Amino acid sequence: MYSLTKINQLKELLQKIKPVSSEDYLKTGGEDLPVDEEGGLLIVPDAGFVFKTKEANTETKFFINIAHHPILEKPEAQEIVDMENQQGVRIPMSLGNIREDFDNRKEPCKVLDCIINPDVCKEMQKKTDNELIAFFADILCAYIIQKHKVELSAKGRPYP
User: Fold this and answer.
1) Where exactly are the structural domains of the chain?
2) Is the pTM of this model over 0.85?
């Protein structure tokens, strides 16, 4: 439970830092954005699609909301020093925290938000490149294991 003082402090902070929509970001070209003291930026991503899978150990339904915002860079190929300068792909993404929720049938589930570059999201929404979707899902699951120590089932389906 938050105290009234803490709630008022949070309200003041939110009034100072206006969330940046994709439209606002594109209008300004990414210049003069309202960053906080740590250099962070509060954004409002655009909806993309959902990956539905299960947590590997518990079989709990797990939904990953894929959203997009132009502040996230496009993927780029780069050499990986640790792997004898082999070529790799870096896919910038931002993962939120896992939260508990309920699905449409009112059954417990877990939900996680992920933000990526709009071009990547649009390519996957076309559903014409299943290899791209599978590749992204593998990278996403690896990142979720790394960040949250949660292993997801290999079987997952995107729902644009």
Assistant:
1) 1-44, 45-159
2) no
